[in-house]
Every structure is written in C-alpha cells, then in structure tokens.
Design a protein that fits this description.
alpha+beta; 6-stranded mixed sheet; 441 residues; 16 helices; Cytochrome Bc1 Complex, Chain A, domain 1
C-alpha cells in the first residue's frame, strides 16, 4: 500500500508541478514597508488572501503569554463601522470565509472568496486590519473562551507533554510559553492591553499580503496601495531579549497525572527555517518518524509493540528550533520505549540511510509538498509564510529541488550535528497532578 501511495504521489507531483508553480509571483513593496505577493491563476474562480505579520509567542513577554492568541480571536468581533454580526453576514453573503490564527512566530488573517466577492471581502478585511475595536463584552467573552481552551488542552495528555517538553527545552527563551498562555496571564488582560498590542503590530511595515487566484493583480495592488500606502512606517518591538543555549547535557522533566498511558516527547535541537540544513532535517524526520512506513513506527510499534501512538516532527522556527520523537505507551514499558527511541536515534547517527529508503522518502516529501499547494489557499499560505519568516517566497520553487539534492551523507551529517543531547518531557500515571521531577542527565 505504501509503495502504491509513493507511486501515486510521484505521478501527481509531476502533473501538478507545472500547474501549481507555472504562473509567476509578483512582489511589490510599498514605501512604508508593506509587502504584497500576488499570483494570478485561472484554474478556478476562487481568490485566497492571506495576511501575515510578525507577532505571536516569540514577541510576548512572560506577562503577555497568550495575548497574541486572544487578540487574533477578537479581530472579527467588531470595527468602527461593523459589528461582529455584520462582518460575518457580509462575508457569508458572497459565499466567503474569514478566519484568524496566532502561532509562535506570526499572526494570520485568512480570507477565501470568489472572484465576484473579492471587492466585498477586501472591504471587510481592510476594515479589520485598521479599525478593530475590541468591545469590552467581547474581550470578556474571549478571555473566558481562552481559559476553557487552556483547561481543555491540559486534559489532552499528549499536548500537555509537548508543552512540558518545550518548557524544559527552551528554558527562558520566549518559545517556552504555551501559545494559549497561562490562566494567570489571561485573567489579567484588559481591552487596553489587547488594543495596545494591536496598534503595535498591525502596522504597514509588519504586514505581508499574499494573494493567489482569479483576480486582476494590478487592480487589487492598486486598492491596497490606496488604502495603506499613506500610513506611516512604525518601529516594531524586537522579541524579548533572551539567549538560547543548546543543552550541554541531556535534560528530563517528568510529571505525574491520572492516566492509564505514559506519554513522552524526546527531542533535540534542530536548524531554523532559514538554515541551509533545513531540507536535510526534513528528510531525516521523514525517515525516522514522519510516516507509517518510518523507522519508529515499524521498529517500535509494529515489531516490538511498544507504542499506542508514535511519530516524530521537525518544528522549524525563526529562532531556536527542535526535532522531537513522541510516543504513548504502557507505563510498565516506559523505560524500554525510551531506550528504543534512543536506539533509533543512535542508528540514524551511525549508519547511512539505504538508497531505496532515501528515494522513497524524498518522493514522499516532494509529493506531499506539491499536494499541499494544490489549492489557492495552500499556495497563498506558504508564499506568505516563507516571505515573512525569512527564506523568501521564491523558496516555494526551490524546495522540491533542494529535497531532491539531499544525499544519504547529508542525512548522516545532520544527525551527528544535531542529535546530541536530548530533552525529555514525560507524563506518567500517578495520583498527583502536580508532582514533578526535573533533572539533568
């Protein structure tokens, strides 16, 4: 089945590669620093508009933890001239969708409309970007919802284990904070703190517009210039000063919770999104735990029966990044499972990947990447993210070629460079919800 999937991805990638990236991307930068990426496509009548800006966990102080998430959740709750209901009604009237998000390195507003509904959609979007009001009652409702989300996440043991891992791995670096924040920080937020954060980061030189679809780029760029071109450039605060020091020894943090399953996340330092090592680490991750045919899945789940759930992920960020293996296992098998993961990490550091395994992995990565760009929204998202976060929008075209160029020697070199000292976050069954042990190994 796996080989059939790989063959399918190969054929589809070849078919879509020309279609997906054939049209050129136009980049315009206004005098005030606002960036516009536009790509016309006539494959359908859909227009995807993504707006990205630098904000998120990396830009928050510890006292502001969760403020980006709260702000983004309130953007659609009203402007100077529109209520939340009017915003929703206008977008729905043209069959469109609008949503917001906050991540560790950025915030995002996503608009999806038809060609005929683009004018209406842009009017609403521009209003939100400039005139959001954050009514007191909506702020109170948003805080209550965010507190419920925090409580819900704590009940999700794998998610809680990832949070524990990141706290331990990042130490004092801003990424250590959960994206949703803490109950004590969220409770202190006011309308003023949300509005001040909005005015600080929603400035022209911090915005990247990314548009893909059936539209007249000259006309849309003209509209953006008329609406935003005269706004002044403003200084954007740098992320809180913090030094990230890669671990000089392995670290472990263990908490006890009421559970029938033991959960662990075992991770290492990894290259940032702008590093030359980025694509080689993508390949390494796919080999070790990125699919159901990966080594962790086959060796530790299929052959040894150690895992209920297992895999790996590589999280490339603007700042310090990480690669991590994760697993849910029976409590009595926890130590055996941990040693199993470490054994597989030792294997990837000590021997070259087989030619056929490398070929399958690169085909899989290339195919899934092309498929992720099949829609206008997918293309607009990746163009905007790469432009904002550092590699630049052209990296979308370079990525498949870079993956194809990765050798088995590259994978071995990357493994030996990054997979040195590990950080372990684990949640084990126990009566206590607060007992915690943190130690250096």
């Amino acid at each position: 089945m796996r080989k059939v999937l790989i063959l399918f991805l190969s054929i589809l990638a070849i078919t879509l590669l020309g279609e997906t990236f054939a049209a050129p991307v136009k980049k315009d930068v206004l005098a005030n620093g606002l960036t516009i990426l536009s790509k016309e496509s006539r494959t359908n009548d859909i227009v995807a508009v993504q707006v990205y800006l630098r904000m998120g966990t990396r830009y928050e102080t510890d006292e502001q933890a969760g403020l980006s998430t709260l702000l983004q959740s309130l953007l659609l709750k009203g402007t100077d001239t529109r209520t939340a209901v009017q915003i929703a009604t206008e977008i729905e009237s043209v069959g469109g969708r609008i949503s917001t998000a906050a991540e560790k390195d950025y915030g995002n507003i996503s608009l999806l409309v038809t060609r005929e509904g683009l004018d209406v959609g842009l009017d609403v979007l521009f209003d939100i970007l400039q005139n959001a009001t954050f009514p007191e009652d909506k702020v109170a409702q948003g805080k209550a919802l965010l507190l419920r989300r925090i409580a819900s996440r704590r009940d999700q043991l794998l998610a809680s284990t990832f949070d524990l891992f990141q706290e331990t791995y990042y130490q004092n670096y801003p990424y250590h904070k959960p994206r949703l924040g803490y109950p004590e920080t969220v409770k202190r937020f006011t309308r003023k703190s949300v509005l001040d954060f909005y005015k600080t980061y929603y400035v022209p030189n911090n915005l990247v517009f990314s548009l893909v679809g059936n539209f007249d780029s000259s006309a849309v760029i003209g509209r953006i210039k008329r609406r935003f071109g005269r706004l002044p450039r403003r200084d954007i605060p740098s992320p809180p000063e913090a030094i990230f020091s890669p671990a000089s020894r392995s670290r472990e943090a263990i908490r006890e919770r009421e559970s029938q399953t033991a959960w662990m996340v075992l991770g290492y330092s990894a290259p940032s999104i702008t590093s030359p090592d980025f694509t080689a680490m993508q390949v390494l991750n796919a080999v070790t735990g990125g699919s159901m045919d990966s080594r962790l899945f086959v060796e530790l789940r299929d052959k040894k029966g150690l895992a209920y759930q297992i895999g790996s992920l590589y999280v490339p960020r603007v700042g310090p990044s990480f690669y991590a293996d994760y697993m849910g296992t029976r409590p009595e098998q926890f130590e055996l499972a941990r040693k199993g993961i470490l054994s597989e990490m030792g294997r990837i550091k000590s021997e070259l990947v087989k030619d056929e395994e490398l070929k399958r992995t690169k085909t899989y990565l290339r195919g899934t990447f092309i498929m992720s760009q099949e829609s206008n929204a997918g293309q607009a998202s990746l163009l905007g993210q790469y432009e904002l976060l550092g590699p630049g929008y052209r990296f979308v075209d370079e990525y498949p070629k870079l993956i194809a160029s990765v050798t088995k020697e590259d994978v071995l070199k990357i493994a030996r460079k990054y997979l040195t000292y590990y950080t372990l976050g684990a949640i084990l069954p126990g009566k206590s919800h607060v007992k915690e042990s943190t130690k250096d190994k």
